[in-house]
Design a protein that fits this description.
Layout (H helix, E strand, L loop, with lengths): L10 H25 L4 E6 L4 E6 L6 H9 L1
Antiparallel strand pairs: 1-2
């Protein structure tokens, strides 16, 4: 029998945070589609020190933007 240990204090908050981030991304992509724009979203998680990137077109990825800014 497998037992999964969960931090009771943070169990709901991490699921809630994920849900909010997912909602923000979905709304941003919806707006990008309605306005016919290309979108890049960067989300930094301070707790886990992670940077996540979401984009609607490959030409607005962070590495491409970085190369364009040097030109």
């Amino acid at each position: 029998k497998h037992v999964k240990l969960v931090d009771a204090a943070n169990a709901g908050s991490s699921a809630q945070k994920y849900k909010r981030v997912k909602t923000i991304i979905n709304k941003a992509v919806e707006i990008a589609n309605l306005c016919d724009i290309k979108l890049n979203i960067l989300i930094y998680d301070e707790k886990y020190h992670r940077l996540k990137e979401f984009f609607t077109a490959s030409e607005v990825k962070l590495d491409v933007i970085h190369l364009l800014s040097k030109a």
